[in-house]
Amino acid sequence: MLGLGTLSRVAREVRRDVTAVHDRDPAARGVSSLEVLAAWPGVQALLAHRVAATLHRAHVPVLPRAISATTRSITGIEIHPAAAIADGLFIDHGMGVVIGETAEIGVDVTVYQGVTLGGNGFATGKRHPTVEDNVTIGSGAKLLGPITVGHGAKIGANTVVITDVPPNTTVVGNPGHPVRVEGKRSEGPDADWIHLPDPVANAIRDLSARLGALERRLADPGAAEDLEPSAQVRPLHPVRGQHPAGG
Known about the structure:
The protein contains 5 helices and 15 strands.
């Protein structure tokens, strides 16, 4: 299990990780692969994880966790040796990133600093998120519990996600609310965290406008200003899927 085939696989994965940096980090333009390996903490953390995960699957005691702990102290990125990570993960900056034991990450996922893929209970079994291919997770986002983030989804900065996210959906807020659905955005990493819609702010803005209209109507009963017959209450986020604290 720890033969030449394993070494070849780890080398291929590391090359893929370096390629992801060159493709998705503007700061890496014109930078050699050797410099990326030497100076990008996300790549270093992934390299260490590839080794620790291989040793973990081979049931080697102590060493996988020792590698993980050492990597955390050097890079600020904590990845459990049992976490399943596919090719092409790009961890930008990385300080404060935590990836839990039963987390699963698909191909070509982009993660920014301060992201947590964590559990939210003491249940055993699957208790961390599953992130499918081509997902982008913004700085400070917290994904908690055995949820699934669908292919091509985008998680806004500082969003707290505790329920499943459909494919090709943008989610913002605490708790996270879907604000774009499939077909409304192009696939691939996107670092535009400024122009994301805010459903809570939109609801407050609508309420403020209606209150203003009511005040003007009360101040001048003869005014011809029309009001909506009744306010429409729309659910911001339907709760579906398994309980996030489930095992």
